[in-house]
Amino acid sequence: MRQAGRYLPEYNATRKKAGNFLALCKNPELACEVTLQPIDRYGLDAAILFSDILTIPDAFGLGLHFVEGEGPRFHKKIESEADVATLPSVQMAEALSYVGDAVALIRKTLNGRVPLIGFSGSPWTLACYMLSGGSSSDDFLMVRKWIYSRPELVLTLIDRIQGAVIDYCDMQVKAGAQTIMLFDSWGGLLADRAFDRFSLASLKTIVGALKQRHPATPVIVFVKGGGQWAERIASTGCDGIGLDWTTDLSAMRSKIGSRCTLQGNLDPAVLLGAPKHIEAEATKVVDSFGRLESGVGHVFNLGHGISQFTPIDNVSCLVEAVAKASRNQAR
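and the corresponding structure tokens:
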């Protein structure tokens, strides 16, 4: 997750050249450059598009910008039904053409070296940012208040975002993305019954639409803090389920069986530790899933984004540890 980033010196150099994070995202050549940097350094098995989940709200005209030390902010936020009603009709392939251009350039530059993963934020997660005007220090408490006081407003906004996500992912696949991952970064904040209504329903619609348009393209769904809902997530028709580090892979495999590949789920904090502990913890993840069988897959991954404080040599240690543990499992 988030292969490129501030832990890499070459990324920091490219970002400095771009001027700021958003300018980097909107420059296809530089986005291609930073997408390939971790592939070149570590020889990873797949490339992840360098972009940001908030491109869709930005395309809706909310005015995305980043405040140092505070994270993403919007110049405008959604505060009423009128705000939702007046969101412009946007052709995502046109408004976010720089993402499509980056995908096409990355795919061409990779030249079959490894697959390319595209992604989008989920409607619920994007709605959290749009309703709060950016990132939140209180776990989006006011947004969660609205689902119990103004649920129709939230659902109407989610419906608008849902269509945009479908078109955005469709554009990425047409441009060359070989897998799509949906990030529901804030789904785990929802109560059990609210999750079905405010997140899962839209995820199911998106997966269904993408499968109809691109049946051969795998779709992965990641709900941070949502391991308890994995069986429900599998019912969306997705091909893979991303899991954070709080989930037991062995137990999840027994529940999901061959319905979905599982992806995850090393705690990113492990990469801040000593090499011997990195190897031990990576081996535990591989062993927890167990031997691969026909129709059952595991994509080793972090349980969330890599920390900017990660020593670069520790990532090399992790890659080697996973390869070693995987070979041992195959014997």
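(Above: one complete record from the training split.) The chain has a mean pLDDT of 95.
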